[in-house]
Amino acid sequence: MNAPRPPTAEGQLEFLRSLQRLLDEGSFTSSYKFALLHAIADLCLVKGEDSGAELELSTADIAEQFVRLYWPQAIPYPAGNDAGILHQNTGRQALVVRELAEYHNRYQGSLVELERSRSDWDNLRRRVEQTVRKMPLWKLQTVGSERLEFLYENVDRGGSVRLQSGVAYCFRVFYPLVTDVIEGAWSHFVQRLNPQLLGQIVDLRSFLFGSQRTSLAAYRPLLRAVQRGRCFYCESDIKSRGDVDHFIPWRRYSLDLGHNFVLAHRGCNSSKSDLLAAEEHLERWTERNRTCRDELEAGFEEGRVLHDWRATRQIARWAYGQVQRAGGQVWVQANELRHLSGDWRRILSAAGDEAA
Predict the structure, then answer these.
(1) How many domains does one find in the chain?
(2) Domain residues for 170?
(3) Rounded to the nearest 10 degrees, how much is the dihedral formed by the CA atoms of 234, 236, 240, 244?
(4) Which residues are registered as beta bridge partners of 330?
(5) In this model, does residue 173 exceed pLDDT 60?
């Protein structure tokens, strides 16, 4: 049996063409199809690999991603003297949004607290999963009168889909581009459904999908404690408040997960910017998350911070792999950059072994 191989350049272009056709020609009566595409892309990052192999995704995992995507959207959007939850369906409000709004109120906006309540979390996930199976999963690839089955076979039933060879690879390689296009199309769809509430609003996308402007101040005391008051990057004392930095830059992956945060001098944070940190910083990051594992996770739980070390590590593996394939550079210090070596694989593999 032949080992899986990444798609050719032409195969990758064909994937992008098919995705564009889906967004341009597909029938969208709700935002579910946008959410499904985004969820698949997210799961390819966390569960996929770069071999070109097929990837099976369960509807339960897709439902969890739906909850994470729609959670910030299930609250009223303030507009002038009026406010209301944005419509995500051409008819009555989308069922997933209605259900999430109930849980949003019940748990005062804390997704972490909802996940802690296993009975409520499992119940919500099952209900969203039923919607995923009934609505977008088997209708996503319908374009006009034909089916464009380039993602997975439409069997019209079941609790999982198997992504075809090369699909997970393409979602991983083109993740920033793909999610940018999906979020743009999703925002445009929601704006067309809510003309009275939104008018000519220009910041809708930040409301729907989050913004790096979100305050990270709540993370500072915990990070200062585990780092013993020192800058994560230069390791000298932080005499001011310090900046909370996304170790894997927010621009590359915009879900805030606790293990990804470090405390740094403002100068170090500014010069690192949206670059990946060099291997010595990566090794120190994995070591910090290993040796301070209990302290960090207790702090995350107390502060209601989303965290998943396995998923964070997988995202790091994807991000560093992308830079290496592109022949890109990583940040060392100040204005010093260098090309990435292959040592990052050993570092992240060791971190996986230690966590097992």
Answers:
(1) 2
(2) 9-209
(3) 40
(4) 338
(5) yes
pLDDT of the residue at 212:
60
Q: What is the pLDDT of residue 356?
A: 38
Residue bearing tokens 């849980």: 103
Residue type, 274: D
The helix or strand, by DSSP H or E, that contains position 160, with its residue range, turns out to be strand 160-163
Q: 344 forms bridges with which residues in the sheet?
A: none
Angle at 39 between CA 35 and CA 45, to 5 degrees: 150
- Alpha-carbon distances, residue 326 vs 154, 180, 249, 251, 307 (angstroms): 34, 19, 17, 17, 29
Please say if the pLDDT value at position 202 is more than 60.
no
Both structure tokens of 180: 């940018």
230 band by pLDDT with thresholds 50, 70 and 90: very high
Compute CA distances 235 → 167, 223, 227, 294, 329, whole Å: 41, 13, 9, 22, 22
Pair (332, 226) in one structural domain: yes
Residue 51 dihedral angles phi and psi, to the nearest 5°: -85, -15
Segment (H or E) for 175: helix 175-193
Q: Are 190 and 85 in contact (CB under 8 A)?
A: no
Question: Which residues make Cβ contacts (< 8 Å) with residue 309, sequence separation at least 6?
Answer: 259, 289, 293, 355
Does one domain contain both 184 and 84?
yes
CA 182/CA 20 separation, integer angstroms: 10
Rg (CA), the chain: 21
Question: 154, 175, 209 — which closes off a domain?
Answer: 209
The reported pTM is 0.78
H or E segment and range at residue 122:
helix 118-134
Q: Going by C-beta distance under 8 Å and a sequence separation of 6 or more, which residues neighbour residue 212?
A: 250, 251, 254
Strands (E), 130-274: 142-143, 146-147, 160-163, 243-246, 261-264
Tokens of 296: 């960090």
> Are 189 and 277 found together in one domain?
no
CA-to-CA dists, residue 9 to 13, 45, 157, angstroms:
6, 20, 33
